[in-house]
Structure formats: C-alpha cells, structure tokens
Amino acid sequence: MATTNDIEKAAGVLRAGGLVALPTETVYGLGANAEDPAAVSRIFQVKGRPPSHPLIVHLGGAEQLDDWVEEVSTTARLLAERFWPGPLTLVLRRGRRVPLEATGGLETVAVRVPDHPVALALLSAFGGGITAPSANRFGSVSPTTADHVRAELGDAVDFVLDGGSCQVGVESTIVDVTGEIPAILRPGGVTREDLEAAVGYRLTVPSTSTVRVPGQHPSHYAPRARVVLVAPEKVIAEAELAHELGHRVGVLLPPASAGTPVKAHAVVALPASAAAYARGLYGFLRRLDQQGCDLIVASLPAEEGLGLAIANRLRRAAGPRPAV
Ligand code: TXA
Ligand code: MG
C-alpha cells in the first residue's frame, strides 16, 4: 500500500514530467501532469494509443471544475455535486489550461474526481490536474491491481502507486453535458438508474455497435483469448463443444449454473451480485488468459444497474479485432 512518502515521490515524478500509475475506485490509471503536453504525449506512446483518442483529466475536488472547463450547465453542476468523488466522468467545453494533446484535438474535455484515498492524496500533493487513461496497452483489459499494471507496463511507467484492488472494477460512466440533455457515452460505475434519479428523466444509452466516441472501437477491453457470447443457458453446451474440438476453453459460468461441472480448460464461477461481478470482471479475463485459454465462452448479464457496464465491456471484448 502506498505510504505518504510514496505519494510525495509520485507528485515529484509528475512535476518532473514523468508518468505515475495510480489507483482509482474504477481501474488503475496511467497519470501525467495534465498541463504538460510532452508528458501527456508520452502516455500515448506508452499505451500505443492513437493521439486522437481523448483522455480524462482527474481533479482533486468538484470545486476545481471551473478552473478546467467552460460553460458548466446546471445539470453538469448537479451531477458533479451528486456523484463526485465517484465513478462519473463529465464531458464539458475545454478550459484554456487543458492542452489539445489531452483532448485528442477536441474542444471538449472529460473530467472526473476519483473516489480513492490514494488518488485523492496524490491530487492534493500534486496540486494540479492529472490526465490518466486506464493503465493498460491500447485495446486490452484494464488493470484493477498494481500487479496488473506492472505486468502490463513494466518499466514504461516511472512510478506505480499501490492502492490495493479497485472497488468498482469497471471504468467510470462518461456523460456528455455540453448539451441540454445529458448523453451517456459509456456506461460505467455510476448506473443509468442513479443518473436518471438525479436528473429526473430517462436517459438513452448508445448501442455498442455504433462508434460514436472518438476511440470507442468495437474491440476494446479485450483479453488475448477470443470471447464468444451465447445465451446463459447455452454457456455449458457451447464450452463443452469447443473443448471437444480441441480449444483451450475458459468459461465465465453464470450464477444460475453454479455448481454444474463443466468439461473445459478453466472455469470462473461468476458471483451473483453485479457489484462483485464488475469488481472481478477484468481479473477473471486476465486469469483465463494466464491459464492459456484461447477461447472464452460467456453470456451477457441483465442490462440493468452495473450489468449495463459489464455487458458493454463483454460486447466490446467479443467485438471484431483489428487485423494484425
Ligand atoms: O474510470 C475511468 O474512467 C478510468 C480511470 C483511470 O479514471 N479511465 C479511463 O480512461 O477509463 P480511458 O482513457 O481508458 O477512457 C476514457 C474514455 C475514452 O473512451 C474516450 O474516448 C473518452 O473517455 N473521452 C475522453 N475525452 C472525451 C471527450 N472530450 N469527448 C468524448 N469522449 C471522451
Ligand atoms: Mg481504457
């Protein structure tokens, strides 16, 4: 676990233009001083991420919002007050101190206040904003422990702050609040139901098949193994068929089938609660990769509450892969 000394050291690395991996309540981030274009550019190099793919600026408190963005609507203010610190990212008009390197050239910027003591301590010690995408290589599964970060990025990151396992486990919900009606761009740790309760009306969620947000490619959050999605009651039959055909099959076994023996290479018995599933999701996918699976058979959970974010990530993991 990170000590006060580690926090000071990490703040120094950021001031010197270096990269720090930091825990948040959602996933680990790969952080740089948001106002240092050279440091921000290094994030893209390390991740292998296209420079047009915008980053999230992390702030130490909601009261800093006006320093970083323009035109904060009543709805934006309401959502920030209700959900920060927490797994909600707001997209607003870019303020002047945000370099275009951080926004992928866009005139809008994504901002959030993370709900993790280590992240908040770092933001407070550093004093500025920290741009941080998830601390994984572009397109792969986000890290939810410091060990995941080290395994994925190694020496490419200057300092890793260990804050234990991420409590939420899937990324923040991204809401565009530049218009009158907020638009959910990515489902995540704050549920659609909670957002709707806060604003007082129904919100729409984009379908996974349309690439609307810059960089939201269909294949994302993907393990090495190919992911196949089937109906929950077909998971076992599909897995056993692929097993007989000689695949090294990993199974995400739905709670309804708990306890049923499955002929497969590796089986993860999924937790019944959506919160526990979200918390474990990326770790499960990593584990199946490590166990050498070449195929993962899974099904989508009910798309309500955190199930919406889990289903979104599974769909993307199963999406078409770019040719290599
Ligand atoms: O939970 C999270 O959000 C984590 C932690 C580290 O905070 N971060 C994260 O960052 O998931 P990243 O870079 O992996 O995903 C950020 C998403 C991208 O899909 C990007 O397209 C979107 O935010 N985004 C950033 N700026 C945007 C903007 N101005 N307009 C629309 N989408 C934006
Ligand atoms: Mg990411």
Largest sheet: 10 strands, mixed
**What's the pLDDT, averaged over the residues?**
95
| CATH-defined topology of the largest domain | DHBP synthase
What is the 3D form?
globular
Write the layout of secondary structure elements.
Layout: H1 4-15, E1 20-22, E2 29-33, H2 37-47, E3 56-58, H3 65-68, E4 69-70, H4 74-83, E5 88-94, H5 100-103, E6 108-112, H6 117-126, E7 130-131, H7 146-153, E8 159-160, E9 173-176, E10 183-186, H8 192-199, E11 226-229, H9 235-244, E12 249-253, E13 266-269, H10 274-290, E14 295-298, H11 307-317
Parallel strand pairs: 1-8, 3-6, 5-9, 11-14, 12-13, 12-14
Antiparallel strand pairs: 1-2, 2-7, 3-7, 4-5, 5-6, 9-10
Helix pairs in contact: 1-6
This protein binds threonylcarbamoyladenylate and magnesium ion.
Residues 133-134, 142 line the site of magnesium ion.
What does this molecule look like?
By secondary structure, the chain is an alpha/beta fold. 32% of the residues lie in helices and 17% in strands. It has two domains: 4-199, DHBP synthase (Alpha-Beta Complex); 226-317, Threonylcarbamoyl-AMP synthase, C-terminal domain (Rossmann fold, 3-Layer(aba) Sandwich). The protein has helices at residues 4-15, 37-47, 65-68, 74-83, 100-103, 117-126, 146-153, 192-199, 235-244, 274-290, 307-317; strands at residues 20-22, 29-33, 56-58, 69-70, 88-94, 108-112, 130-131, 159-160, 173-176, 183-186, 226-229, 249-253, 266-269, 295-298. The longest helix has 17 residues, at 274-290. It is globular, with a radius of gyration of 19 Å. The two termini are 38 Å apart. The protein binds threonylcarbamoyladenylate and magnesium ion (MG).
